[in-house]
Design a protein that fits this description.
The chain is mainly alpha-helical. It folds into two domains: 2-68, Arc Repressor Mutant, subunit A (Orthogonal Bundle); 71-134. It is built from six helices and two strands, in the order H-H-H-E-E-H-H-H. The chain has helices spanning 8-19, 26-33, 37-49, 70-97, 103-123, 126-134, and strands at residues 53-56, 65-68. The longest helix is centred in the middle third of the chain and has 28 residues, at 70-97. The protein is elongated, with a radius of gyration of 22 Å. The mean pLDDT is 88.
């Protein structure tokens, strides 16, 4: 997660919650990961804002518990794939503003437009393909669309 700009504590906490057999309290997170309770609290709040953690209430228990939210990763990936279309549209607008005599600028934009057009085509049915993957209709040896 550090490579994505997140802190080491956030990465450790996400891994911990991902592997936990049940939702954990702040006290458990702090104790098991050797964090102060303040660090655990701050880290969990960051994870909640990023939607990679979920707050879980257990009937009869006063303390909040937290778990990893794996669905948020899937949703975020799908949203990132959708952003590629926005980039392609932005590049089209840029091309309309660059005069034909600015060949190098236009070439740079055309290269990016081609790349984003390919990505949009390739990922256009990613949700459908993922559902097929989950049903074991396709696997790693399957030919890509």
């Amino acid at each position: 997660m550090e490579n994505s700009g997140a802190t080491k504590t956030l990465g450790r906490t996400f891994g911990y919650l991902l592997l936990a057999d049940q939702p954990r309290t702040l006290d458990e997170i702090a104790k098991d990961l050797l964090f102060s309770k303040a660090t655990a609290s701050l880290t969990v709040r960051q994870g909640l804002v990023m939607r990679i953690f979920e707050k879980v209430s257990i009937p009869g228990e006063r303390k909040a518990r937290y778990c990893a939210n794996t669905q948020s990763w899937i949703k975020a990936s799908m949203e990132k794939a959708g952003e590629m279309k926005t980039w392609a549209e932005l590049i089209d607008r840029g091309l309309s503003c660059v005069p034909p005599q600015c060949r190098e600028s236009r070439e740079n934009l055309l290269v990016l437009k081609d790349y984003f057009s390919f990505i949009n085509w390739y990922l256009s049915d990613i949700s459908v393909q993922y559902e097929r993957w989950k049903k074991d209709e396709i696997d790693e040896s399957s030919e890509k669309p």
